[in-house]
User: What shape does this take?
Amino acid sequence: MALESPSKPPFASLMRLPIGPSLLKFGVVCDIQYAPIEDGFSFGGTPRYYRHALETLSVASTTFKERSCIFALNIGDIIDGKCKAVSLNVVEAALASIRSGMNKFDNPWHTVYGNHELYCLERKRFKELCCEMHEEEVSE
Assistant: This one.
């Protein structure tokens, strides 16, 4: 069964919410689960749009910048565990692709490990790659 990529980001309706005064503005991304593989299904059968995740991240980063967020949180699973099934080089290349989407937001990123990152890389290597990505903080 083939999957069609969504025509717009899944959070597009949230982007139309009114903006009022706030004390603290920050952005959050989680579970984008990017992998440079064909769209398919998770191990549990849930549809996955692996390559579309980069576009979603790019839109989120641009929105954080437009909304004057002071930082962004990545709370895990920015890559999918299936990256490792291809090769370790693919994992590192996937993180490099993610970097371009994150860099559309100029302020700091703070990252928490997700289980998918740890399926693919050792903590130390993931931290090295993330710090290269955006001089970000990485929490264990």
